[in-house]
Amino acid sequence: MPVTYDLEGQKRVYATWAKFYDKVYQRMLARPQREAVAAACACGPDILEIGVGTGLTLPYFTRESRVYGADLSLDMLKVANRKVAEQHLDHVRGLMVMDACRLGFQAERFDAVTAQFVITLVPDPEQALAEMDRVLKPGGEIVISSRLVDDGGLLAPFWAGLAPLAKAVGWSTDFKVSRLTGWAARTGRYETVHVGGGYFKVVRLRKTASAG
Ligand SMILES: C[S@@+](CC[C@H](N)C(=O)[O-])C[C@H]1O[C@@H](n2cnc3c(N)ncnc32)[C@H](O)[C@@H]1O
């Protein structure tokens, strides 16, 4: 089935969210965001964050890191840009409008690529993963934090039933961990090194070899 891209719809949603996103999500998402950022920083200094939004995660990176942030929404990026200036986040080297499925970076440019609370919003997550893979150095990690559902968990049918409702507000309830770990296994070049527990999960996929 062809994937339909409603990127304009996504931009409209986040043009509105930009105004109050931090107030709603700053505390709620801090634990998984800090965990994901720490894992990314452990890989090396050159880090790409996809769907960086208002830049909630940016203060969590070490000052030795060199972070680039990409997002579909200019309105969200404007808030992030303000944060960088006001908090003197000099480790942030660039914020740019970019689709997760078409990254404008050269191959094997980054030590880590992180995507936080965005993969479930992308119409073609496997294409976004393929792009993360392309720009990631061998030995590096794709670090994803999101609301993800355990496969075969007791509540899986409940979350699946809620999916249409949640989709209306842009929050996935039926995106399974195995969609990420299965992609990693199929490449033959990634190992799943961590799947966190809890409502919001952090998944780490390590690239063991170059695509060749
Ligand atoms: C729920 S917010 C998460 C923001 C940030 N990562 C955080 O953890 O606070 C989702 C962000 O993903 C962005 N986004 C959605 N689809 C995208 C895509 N295809 N490519 C890049 N960014 C996208 C939205 O514009 C929004 O800023």
| Helix-strand makeup class | alpha/beta
Tally of contiguous helical segments: 6
Rg on CA atoms, Å: 16 Å
Q: Indicate the mean pLDDT.
A: 90
The fourth-level CATH homologous superfamily is Vaccinia Virus protein VP39
Would you write up a description of this structure?
With 212 residues, this protein is of the alpha/beta class. It has a single domain, classed as Rossmann fold, CATH 3.40.50. Helix content is 38%, strand content 24%. It contains six helices and seven strands. It has helices spanning 7-17, 21-41, 74-86, 125-135, 156-168, 177-187; strands spanning 46-50, 66-71, 92-97, 110-116, 136-147, 190-195, 200-207. It has a seven-stranded mixed sheet, with helices on both faces. The protein is globular. The mean pLDDT is 90. The protein binds S-adenosylmethionine (SAM). S-adenosylmethionine binds next to helix 1 and helix 2.
SSE inventory with pairings:
Blueprint: H1 7-17, H2 21-41, E1 46-50, E2 66-71, H3 74-86, E3 92-97, E4 110-116, H4 125-135, E5 136-147, H5 156-168, H6 177-187, E6 190-195, E7 200-207
Parallel strand pairs: 1-2, 1-4, 2-3, 4-5
Antiparallel strand pairs: 5-7, 6-7
The chain binds S-adenosylmethionine.
